[in-house]
């Protein structure tokens, strides 16, 4: 295998636009190329690309990241066209980047590929639902008595300003994706809806959602009476291993709130309840076992 052959002869292997995890596609693509040529292997592609022999197995198992430099070395030997190569780069950024802004930009670029939108409808749907907080709020409002699927009515009920145009778009999205159902007589129902919580798209959408809710919580300090809101917290110094206990306490509180929501037959107001535990300092570096104190 040579670099020239790899570039000149792209093959029709696993459809990369159906994937949102670059490791899964890379593993499938290597297996496909091996089915075409029994001499093809992780070792042979690593040798041709000038990569360490153990790198690919570690990348595929998530033990190592695929750096930009190694990505560019590997890409010509994957036997894909330029468009698929661009898409692969974005998938890597989506998974590997530690910069939230970079990951969000990569996701937006991914969603501009028509092949991805058509073949990953659920992921696109989840992102649209969570990236606009009022979509979630409107769906919860639909469970309330007297709800009217009308932008003007909804605008009057929301405490935070959202244009009627955006509300209308949200309503159309919710209806067309079966988040809510509007009967001919105007009655509204909310069907059970399973949301994909596994993909990287979900994690980015959820981060956007929480970011918006934090902004609204901050705004509520000035716009909502103290009797109608609860913003409290406690700052404490703990050991790193104690965070698991904090997580368990917050998870238990969340479960109890979710249970309360299921018990209420007809709600009167939609609340967002946030439970937060945010480290404000860095963890101290651990000394090696053999290192002596000065």
Cα-atom Rg, whole angstroms?
25 Å
Percent of residues in β-strands:
under 5%
Report the average pLDDT across residues: 87
- Tell me the number of strands: 2
How many domains comprise the coordinates? 2
Question: Which stretches of 5+ consecutive residues score pLDDT under 50?
Answer: 1-8
Strand order of the largest sheet: 1-2
Biggest beta-sheet profile: 2 strands, antiparallel
Q: Give the CA-based shape.
A: globular
Q: What is the SS-derived class?
A: mainly alpha
* SSE run: HHHHHHHHHHHHEEHH
H/I helix tally: 14
User: What helical percentage do the residues reach?
Assistant: 40-55%
Distance between the terminal alpha carbons, to the nearest Å?
55 Å
Would you spell out the secondary-structure blueprint of this structure?
Elements: H1 3-8, H2 22-36, H3 42-49, H4 55-60, H5 68-74, H6 82-96, H7 100-110, H8 114-119, H9 121-131, H10 133-141, H11 151-157, H12 164-176, E1 181-182, E2 188-189, H13 200-223, H14 243-263
Antiparallel strand pairs: 1-2
Helix pairs in contact: 6-7, 9-13, 10-12, 11-12
